[in-house]
Amino acid sequence: MSAGWAVRWLPPVGSLVVLTGLAEVAIRVGRVSPLLLPPPSAVLAVAVSESPALLSASSGTAIAVLVGLGLSAVVGVTIAVGLSTSRFIERAFYPYAIFFQVVPIVAIAPLLVIWFGYGIRAVIASAFIVSIFPVIANTLAGLLSVDPALRDLFRIYRAGPVDTLFRLRLPAALPDVLTGLRVASGLAVIGAIVGEFVGGGGLGVVILGAMREQRTDLVFAAVGYASLLGLALFGLASLASHLSLRRWHASEKELG
Amino acid sequence: MTHATWPGSRRHSLVLSLVLVLAAAWVGCRHQDRDRLEIALNWKPEPEFGGIFEALHDRIFEANGLDIELSGGPGAPVIQMVVAGRTAFGIASADEVVIARARGSDVVALFATYQTSPQGLMAHAERGFDSLAALLAAPGILAVEPGLPYVKFLGSRYDLSHREVVPYSYSIAAFLTDPELAQQVFVTAEPIAARRAGAHPQVFLVAESGYNPYTAVLIARGDRVRDDRGRVTALQAALREGWRRYLDDPSAANAWIAEQNPEMDRESLTLAAAAQVPLIKTDATRRDGLGSMTPERWSTLAEQLKAIGVIGEVEEPTRYFIQPGS
Question: Does the reported pTM lie above 0.80?
Fold first, then answer.
């Protein structure tokens, strides 16, 4: 247990300590103005002293991220299933799914407020728009790469399309769906914060307010909380992946 | 309705600021002409900077032995650019100067264009508000930039509990569709646009509340200008002359501004230039000259910022500025 623990956690914690230590020394030796780049120690101090406000802002952001990500998962998988039903439909609509990947969210964010009103709905919409594409793309790839031998087996036993979908194609695509969600989780955090810039609430407003009051240390502390939120979601998606795949999929078996 | 970002809003877009910081760093690395000095603006060319454009147009800077170039733009992190030494001068507001100094940066004000702050709150005239307090007490959305010191100040003084405070969306589209919405404005910008879009805006100056920072203030790094007083005095004199001429007749400079900022048509420029005159020319400037400042005003502002918890320490007021003509 202890040896495994050390192997697992020592490298990331060690690199964090070394890198922030170097940044601290460089900033102090270079006498960089704290307005331009605050030393990590100052950021950490603010992250602790302002933790009640930052935690409550983070929880607001987290709710919007989770709802947006949940919508991405449901809508994204549904769209991918629809696209996978025929080559014709895929060719007709898949190119337009790419729209979601390239949409400059900063540019359309003000419109979200007009469409959905101020508050959490605009924030959820922003998180949803930036996080749905990786779900569609990965799920579709998974659905289309089912083992041909298994597909033949289902055909020989005359399984209907619904059975084939739920008993073969979706389970086979599950690892890809979860990979899509892991990619989407980080994007959803970015999307939510950009949404909050215009819709209000959460870490987005804390960041804007801190910039306006020239509290660069608070800006970085808020960004740190956003990173932790992204990390937690990534961990959650990885855990879901581990729990659902550990019995049969190569990617999780070897880790276990 | 014209589709545009409105000239008066003061968005500090995170993304844009970061891009501009990087751009400023790159610009700073280039070889620079030793005697050429930059003034970083915090918005697009518009009448707010009329005196600067007039001074460039009429070669007043050159007549005062200065070689001036403009930089910056919407979202430019002007204070940070000045502190980092990427630009010699910049345009900011007095509260930004006080806050920057409280955060440990030696920034000083050299010329205060607006003696009365052009920041205001705009509502629909149909609502019939008779005061800033009545506007703030009514229900509906209040769209303001998060972290604006004056919003904190208003919150400390008036009842905002019936207002839903949301971020300003940098467009008056929401104002035009929501009869209860009130929003922040620069009096020379959004109200003119709203009126031209068919609305009947009513504007209350924030200054009415007693919070009245000098705005469109020329700033520099204190350690650089204290040893270079000759050049500072020349720059202040050139700006004063530029503003005197612009207030007298803005048409030539406005034509030049219109060329550089296609989003503003000539009529908007003329209206904005006329609307700002009483904010620039006051009893104080008739006594002490255009752009002048008083220790009392700086002291009041710093005390107000301290009272609302934005800064910790108030300095000796003369540390905040160098008086033009002194």
Answer: yes
Asked if B311 reaches chain A (Cβ–Cβ under 8 Å), the answer is: no
DSSP assignment of B249-309 equals --HHHHHHHHHH-TTS-HHHHHHHHHHHHHHHS-HHHHHH-TT---HHHHHHHHHHHHHTT
Q: Which two three-digit tokens encode residue A74?
A: 């449901």
Q: What ipTM was reported for this prediction? A: 0.81
Task: Find the helix or strand (DSSP H, E) in which B124 lies.
Answer: strand B119-124
Average pLDDT, integer, range B225-238: 92
Query: Between A118, A212, A214, which is nearest B145 by CB?
Result: A212
Arithmetic mean of pLDDT over chain B: 89
Sign of the Cα pseudo-torsion (B147, B152, B154, B159, in order): positive
Structural domains of chain B sorted by starting position, each given as residue range(s) with its CATH number in brackets:
14-116+213-320 (3.40.190.10), 119-209 (3.40.190.10)
B96/A214 Cβ within 8 A: yes
Q: pLDDT band at residue A2, thresholds of 50, 70 and 90? A: low
A163-167, B43-47, B301-305 — most confident range: B301-305
Residue among B14, B21, B96 whose CB faces A207 most closely: B14
Q: Which residues of B touch A35 (CB under 8 A)?
A: 79-80, 83, 100, 103-105
Residue A152 tokens read as 């033949």
Look at B174 and A113 and tell me if their CB atoms are within 8 Å: yes
B15 touches A: beta carbon within 8 Å: yes
In tens, the pLDDT along B165-178 reads 999 977 898 899 99
Angle between the N-to-C axes of helices A216-245 and A51-84, in degrees from 0 to 180, rounded to the nearest 10: 40
Question: Chain A interface residues facing chain B, Cβ-Cβ under 8 Å?
Answer: 33-36, 106, 110, 113-114, 118-119, 196-200, 205, 207-216
A234 vs chain B: nearest CA distance in angstroms? 24
For B302, residues 6+ apart whose C-beta sits below 8 A from its C-beta are: B98, B311, B314, B315, B317, B320
Query: A1 to chain B, minimum CA–CA distance in Å?
Result: 44
Q: Extract the tokens encoding A253.
A: 């078996």
A4 or A119, higher pLDDT:
A119
Looking at the partner chain, which of A35, A198, A215 has a beta carbon nearest the beta carbon of B169? A198
Q: Does B176 touch chain A (CB under 8 A)?
A: no
* Total count of residues recorded for chain B: 326
Sequence spans of domains, chain A: 54-253
Architecture of domain A54-253: Orthogonal Bundle (1.10)
Q: What is the pLDDT of residues B283-294, one digit of tens each?
A: 999 999 999 999
Residue of B14, B79, B177 with shortest CB distance to A214: B79
Q: What is the pLDDT of residues A48-76, one digit of tens each?
A: 999 999 999 999 999 999 999 999 999 99
